[in-house]
Design goal:
Length: about 325
């Protein structure tokens, strides 16, 4: 069956994905390949800085013993090592206080060899997370959460941009999906993803609408989108009736499915997912129902879509912070 003429086609970074029978499959945007490309570029930048006697450094604070956070941090440290960057992992106990973490952050702020500071969330419940995050120097805030960097983003000034939203833009850009002049809808308004990705799309000359839990008629609004970004944290929330035929759909959500009936709703007839679910008792689904691939022109898979870009952009942010703080050009001006 031929794809209807009204649908856009995208030919970059294509991978196979299960699509229910009797449907037309969207082009799948492979985040792993794009992340690998970005990391290769970062490695080249690290080599250039190393030749000038500068080694980018990232420090990660992981408080307590959250299994998911431990995996994330381990992957970040591994990426630093692979790219030739300095990495330092600080692991205070669950009992750590706000004052102790503030002291730790302040010490990292003063260390010249540390270019990026990442405070892994969530922090233990007794800790004032906002106070700790605000203590990170804006020039070392590789998460891009500090109000100074938020202000830089909104006014299009040089600064550090949140990693996941930056990854969304890289997926679109490197897949030759136009942003300028397109209608973009962002579902979700979090400070971490929804708001910054909306601002990045706006800065790239899209016309942007932000929807959230209080928005009425979300599906009808979403149907106007040439680019739809789902970041609302609800498994399979975006269904086929949300999608304009041929739209690019970027799924930021990662949700764990353990219920058999829910699994059947999303993955019935998918032998690979069935095997994995039987072995592990769970699988992952994004905020977008996989059946959306029958309508969309391009879509990111879960896993393997936006997720890998988050770490890649963290590495890129660390090198960017290094260049802004102590790169050869800055040293020459000093």
């Amino acid at each position: 069956m031929q794809r209807q003429a009204c649908r856009c086609t995208f030919a970059f970074f294509v991978v196979k994905i299960f699509i229910p029978m009797n449907t037309i499959a969207a082009t799948i945007l492979d985040g792993n390949k794009i992340a690998t490309q970005i990391k290769a570029e970062v490695a080249e930048e690290v080599q250039k800085l190393s030749a000038a006697g500068i080694r980018p450094g990232l420090a990660v604070i992981l408080a307590g013993h959250n299994p998911a956070s431990e995996i994330y941090v381990r992957n970040k440290v591994k990426s630093c090592q692979q790219l030739g960057m300095l990495s330092e992992n600080l692991t205070p106990p669950d009992s750590v206080t706000t004052a102790e973490l503030l002291q730790m952050v302040n010490e990292l702020n003063s260390r010249d060899e540390i270019d990026g500071i990442l405070v892994q969330l969530p922090l233990p419940p007794q800790v004032d997370s906002k106070k700790v995050l605000l203590a990170v120097s804006p020039e070392k805030d590789v998460d891009g959460f500090h109000p100074v960097n938020v202000g830089n983003l909104s006014t299009q000034r040089p600064g550090l941009v949140p990693c996941t939203p930056a990854g969304v833009i890289e997926i679109l850009r490197r897949s030759n999906i136009p942003i300028e002049g397109r209608n973009a809808v962002v579902i979700g308004r979090s400070d971490i993803v929804g708001k910054p990705v909306a601002m990045l799309l706006l800065n790239n000359n899209a016309t942007v609408t932000v929807c959230h839990s209080k928005t009425k008629n979300i599906a009808q609004i979403a149907q106007q989108a040439d680019i739809l970004v789902a970041a609302i944290g609800k498994a399979g929330f975006v269904t086929e009736d949300f999608i304009k035929p041929g739209a690019a759909v970027i799924d930021v959500g990662i949700n764990k499915v353990t219920d058999r009936s829910e699994f059947e709703r999303f993955f019935s007839g998918d032998p690979a997912r069935e095997k994995s679910f039987a072995e592990k008792g769970s699988t992952l689904v994004g905020d977008v129902d996989p059946h959306v691939a029958a309508v969309a022109g391009a879509i990111t898979p879960v896993p393997g879509g936006v997720g890998p870009l988050t770490i890649a952009m963290l590495m890129a942010n660390t090198v960017k912070a290094c260049r802004m703080r102590r790169g050869p050009e800055r040293q020459a001006r000093s």
